[in-house]
Design goal:
Strand order of the largest sheet: 1-9-8-5-4-2-3
Distance between the termini: 11 Å
Largest sheet: 7 strands, mixed
Oligomer: single chain
Number of strands: 12
Bound molecules: pyridoxal-5'-phosphate
Strand content: 5-15%
Helix content: 25-40%
Order of helices and strands: HHEHEHEHEHEEEEEHHHEEEHHHHH
């Protein structure tokens, strides 16, 4: 048997070619567009952001798309613009990134968690319903790894209890569910263009909505609360006075970022197909290993294939998930964990009294999950290296 790199063997890839987890594919058109943007001199919020917003709205078929500088900002602004504040509760999943929870906290509202399903890793509608109180104002579903939540059931609950639905689509730009696109099921959809995401701008986010009032509020709040189109105040039309109508935030996207996003968005389908191929290859190669491979996309849905998250059979393996992370790192394969359940982080434990045992499914996943590279930047040889390294780690433990 080949000696693992963690035990002093030769790594699957040399250290100099360490496969960075989530590395994006950046192509010439966005490089040229960024350079052109810099040469033009208007690098802040301007026409490129406007174009990116229009392109994104067309891609989603939404009435409004407002670009911001992260999905965290998108979530915060969406909740705030929707009127959610102190005394209100927002129901979301423990199987998410801390940004989802922090956005709720930053509005002065209280996050309330409902456990997720072990197979889909998405929030369970029946758990949501148990958590609804007189203070609940919204449901914040996260389409984990790019798999849509059970939106029929979630929309039913929202209708019965008169709740808003604000979707965290950070993983789910291409996702669809029964003919509808992610971000379009509820009142507001929030997207991320962070470096590891399916479409990138470096840092960046987008808010989509059909609601004119929310769109207007979000636009103003994203730029200090200054009156509409304040970003134009230094344009060649001459200086424009602005009025501050809210205590807003500094969440606007820059033209430099949009210059990347415009070209990335044009390739969204091609990149999706590339990741789907990687996903299928992994699923095929890992049959028979002591792990549960991600379950297939549900019928009549489109999975965005943002993360590939096998669950290790740690009992059979006799090794912990963290040992496998170390073994893969030693083989020069970058890995991630999505996620240690959010309720077990010290701040939230202290603040909300959350503890081990509160969300058994999220905890079960959190002990077993790891994320392998899945990005359009991977070539055939990279994928083969990941398969070799993962197979070695799981068969020689
Ligand atoms: C589920 C989820 N929500 C929100 C975010 C925040 O996105 P951003 O980094 O664009 O603020 C992330 C980022 O990884 C995420 O995974």
């Amino acid at each position: 048997m080949t000696k693992l790199a963690i035990d002093g063997g030769t790594p699957v890839r040399p250290k100099e070619r360490f496969l960075v987890f989530g590395a994006p594919l950046i192509e010439e058109p966005e490089i040229e567009e960024v350079v052109a943007c810099m040469r033009r001199g208007w690098i802040g919020t301007g026409p490129k952001v406007g174009q990116f917003e229009d392109d994104f709205a067309a891609f989603k078929g939404s009435k409004h798309a407002i670009a911001v500088n992260s999905c965290t900002a998108a979530l915060h602004l969406s909740l705030f613009a929707a009127g959610i504040g102190p005394g209100d509760e927002v129901i979301t999943t423990p199987m998410t990134f801390c940004a989802t929870i922090n956005a709720i906290i930053h509005c002065g509202a209280t996050p309330v968690l409902a456990d997720c399903d072990r197979k889909t890793m998405n929030i369970m509608p029946e758990e949501i319903e148990k958590k609804v109180t007189g203070r609940t104002k919204a449901i914040l579903p996260v389409h984990f790894a790019g798999r849509c939540c059970d939106m029929d059931a979630i929309r039913d609950i929202a209708r019965i209890y008169d709740l808003m639905v604000i979707e965290d689509c950070a993983h789910a730009i291409e996702s669809e569910y029964k003919g509808r696109k992610s971000g379009c099921f509820g009142d507001i959809g929030c997207f991320s263009f962070y470096v590891t995401k399916n479409v990138i701008t470096g840092e960046g986010g987008m808010i989509i909505t059909e609601d004119d009032h929310i769109a207007e509020r979000v636009k103003v709040l994203a730029l200090h609360g200054m009156s509409k189109d304040a970003w134009r105040r230094f344009s060649d039309e001459g200086y424009k006075h602005y009025q501050v109508i809210h205590a807003g935030y500094k969440y606007n996207m820059m033209d430099i970022q949009a210059s990347i996003g415009i070209h990335q968005l044009r390739r969204v389908e091609r990149y999706w197909k590339q990741r789907q191929q990687v996903w299928l290859r992994y699923n095929d190669a890992f049959q028979g290993l002591p792990c549960i491979t991600p379950t297939n996309a549900e019928p009549n849905t489109k999975h965005a294939y943002h993360l590939y998250t096998p669950l290790l059979d740690v009992e059979t393996l006799g090794k912990s998930r963290d040992w496998v992370l170390s073994a893969l790192t030693a083989e020069s394969i970058g890995v991630g964990v999505h996620y240690l359940p959010v309720h077990l982080h010290p701040f939230y434990r202290k603040t909300f009294g959350w503890k081990k045992g509160d969300f058994p499914n999220a905890e079960w996943i959190g002990e077993r999950t790891l994320s392998l590279p899945i990005s359009a930047a991977l070539d055939e040889a990279d994928v083969t290296d990941v398969i070799t390294a993962f197979t070695r780690a799981l068969t020689s433990a």
